[in-house]
Amino acid sequence: MTVTTTTDTTGGTLAPLDSRLLSAVYRAPGHTGPDGPVGRWEGIDGDEEWAAEIRRLKTARNAVILAHNYELPEIQDIADHTGDSLALSRIAAETDADVIVFCGVHFMAETAKILSPDKTVLIPDEAAGCSLADSLTAEELAEWKSEYPDALVVSYINTTAAVKGLTDVCCTSSNAVDVVAGLPADREILFGPDQFLGAHVQRQTGRDNIHVWAGECHVHAGISGPELARRAEENPDADLFIHPECGCANSAIYLAGEGIIDPARVHMLSTGEMLTSAREAAAAGRGKVLVATEVGMLHQLRGVAPDVDFAPVNERAACPYMKMITPAALLRCLALGVDEVDVAPDVADKARQAVERMIAVGNPGSGE
Ligand code: SF4
């Protein structure tokens, strides 16, 4: 796959540290992304010896480890903070650590760098891209803008720094409706890159002057409406937690509108909101919840509400890029001080404005 970005992820500026485990790390060619083989760092189990070495290296670097909700369980468990992309970036902006290790995909590490330009930001594998972010390049956005010169650009947080730099306001799945509703009603809007979230915003705001880019995340798009309907029918008492990026989101609203699924069972939630709703489901004594998003989220949900039976709508909905952040990759990252993420200052300044305008709207909640 191609990481579409204007940033450099290079050998970096940090000196390497010795680690007795490093010699076991190797690049395995077998890991396959949606666009073909991408490989990943392997050779080390996420056991207690590894965890102790990660903690030692982290202290030596004065680093903080941030992990997205879709990461492997052992990566989530060793992290100082686990959450969604925006919440992690805001933690990154406030940390006293010298080094931020972002266990997520590339655009997320870029966002951390945009909000923390004076920190060193590392990602354990620079090839961990994102099919959604890749579905709208800066060149494509510039051309789209030229067709609608008076339009305002609203971009989902899952975009490269270069795309954010051409954006008026960013949004998350929590606040996309509020962001768009707060823009002048007579201004056309270019919304990208996620078509499912864009359709959700069109429905909720009732605006007919929103142009939606036809991008998608291959993982979320793979959670289909028919699959959701089948799983809902098999589990008539289960609540449904659905991420608005999912291919099934439109179907869920349709099925609820038609009375095929009880609307009270359908909850459209960002990943951050899912954790809140999980606690509420536990307090209300709910037995089972079907979850329509990437399967890594189940680890967090089960952690906050162990008495609720959380089951995936599609158990194959695993992001291959998130799963590139292996125990071996994290060890290599901390030991060698790589892969460093940098964003050109002029791009970062414009991108930061788009993110800060979103935060000013309120309820930024979470991205993915
Ligand atoms: S799950 Fe989809 S949107 Fe999220 S990082 Fe993976 S490819 Fe990108």
Question: What descriptors fit this protein?
Answer:
Quinolinate_synth_type2, binds iron/sulfur cluster, disordered N terminus, 368 residues, Rossmann fold, alpha/beta, 4-stranded parallel beta sheet, 16 helices
Which CATH architecture of the largest domain is right? 3-Layer(aba) Sandwich
Q: What's the number of extended β-strand segments? A: 18
- Strand arrangement within the widest β-sheet reads 1-18-9-8-6-7
Helical percent range? Answer: 25-40%
CATH superfamily of the largest domain: NadA-like
Which oligomeric form is depicted? single chain
General form: globular
Ligands bound to this protein structure: iron/sulfur cluster
Number of structurally distinct domains: 3
Strand residue percentage? 15-25%
Rounded mean pLDDT is: 90
How many whole angstroms does the radius of gyration measure? 20 Å
GO molecular function: 4 iron, 4 sulfur cluster binding; metal ion binding; quinolinate synthetase A activity
Enzyme class: transferase
GO biological process, one term: 'de novo' NAD+ biosynthetic process from L-aspartate
Family: Belongs to the quinolinate synthase family. Type 2 subfamily.
Question: What does this entry look like structurally?
Answer:
The protein has helices at 48-61, 73-78, 85-94, 106-115, 131-134, 138-147, 161-164, 176-181, 195-205, 218-221, 225-234, 249-257, 271-283, 297-304, 327-336, 345-361, and strands at 8-10, 26-28, 32-33, 36-37, 40-42, 63-68, 81-83, 99-103, 120-122, 152-156, 169-171, 189-192, 210-212, 239-242, 266-268, 288-292, 309-312, 340-342. It has 368 residues and is α/β, with parallel strands linked by helices. The protein has three domains: 8-130 and 320-345, NadA-like (Rossmann fold), CATH 3.40.50; 133-218 and 349-361, NadA-like (Rossmann fold); 223-312, 3-Layer(aba) Sandwich (Rossmann fold), CATH 3.40.50. The strands form five sheets. A six-stranded mixed beta sheet has the order 1-18-9-8-6-7, sandwiched between helices. The two termini are 21 Å apart. 52% of the residues are buried. The model is unreliable at 1-8 (pLDDT under 50). This is Quinolinate synthase.
